[in-house]
Amino acid sequence: MTETICSSASTEDEKPHSCIKQHLIWNGATYTNVTCGAPYSNIEQALSYNSAADGRRNIFRCIEDQLTGQSWSRLRAVVSDYVAHQMPSLMQQTEISLGSMNKVFAARWVDSRNVVCATKCNQLFVVDTKTHRKTYIPVLKCSPFNKDPDSPCGIHCIAVNPSRTFLATGAEHTNAVAVYRLPTFDPVYVGESGHSDWIFDIVWLDDEFFISGARDSKLALWRVKDEMVRLVAPLASVGKYPIYRPLSIKKCVKAEKVRALSYNEHTQELVVLSLSAYLHLFDAQTFKQKFSRKLPFCLENVCLTNHEDYELYAVGSKSHVTFLDSRTLKPINYIVSPYKGCGRCSSRLDN
Fold this sequence. Notes:
Number of helices: 4
Strand order of the largest sheet: 10-11-12-13-17
Radius of gyration: 23 Å
Number of strands: 26
Shape: globular
Distance between the termini: 33 Å
Low-confidence stretches: 1-60
Mean pLDDT: 76
Largest sheet: 5 strands, mixed
Oligomer: single chain
Strand content: 35-45%
């Protein structure tokens, strides 16, 4: 079995004017303006060009406008459209064999080169995308007092804090969390007594606090501090680590199995997706539930992401990707899945 990891690949040496080469196409002798397709032998001509055909000014004039505080929306429209059309040709697919391991449930970049993966067979490993070398990370064991749920099913989630100093994921039992220190993957602690069933997702609120959501329809709030690292350093050298309980546990009202979480830093709100086809909004500061909203499509709503600049949430289901206003959680648009019978397992909206 193989797992596909996509990464950006560059096949040409850096060309002149590298600071602006993202806005022009270099064909070996001249630059081609990306807006109108007209070739230029120097930058000054490109900057002064104004399309007579459709009245649109080229991308460099838009940049100049942006620097003087004008027409950022026009610049974003031109750049985003061009980048969107070029992205498929810039991505290079690489297949990396997983051997006897079962499917990968979750993956996260830990730096510009390495990806950490979690599998259905409860394995945790880091893949070097340059050498394809896999380094296995020991899964942290739980205490004898923590009972593993019936029919355990691997590690479903990985989350890295904003400063990339800690990683939270699943532990030996599917209802416990494990926290590692980055980039060394030294164990920090195992979190127990927060859930009675599989943990489906984890999201960081900041560098210290994170929330886990599980199939038991509960949310658990956890904390990791730098002081903990200093305390466990002597234990880590002999393969030992402490066990912690969550700071708080909340039952998500109207939720049937919490499936995905998303944190909106701009509004300081936590959005919870449940398999009962509801979105639930929480105040992240008080950890109190504000309201819930029924989704328009009911089958297998399993992934959730947000775009703070556009005030959007996106929910992936078996048949659609639904876009919702982050202020009201009301649907504003949707995309029909082009693949019949295949749902969405992950989603992301990039700034």
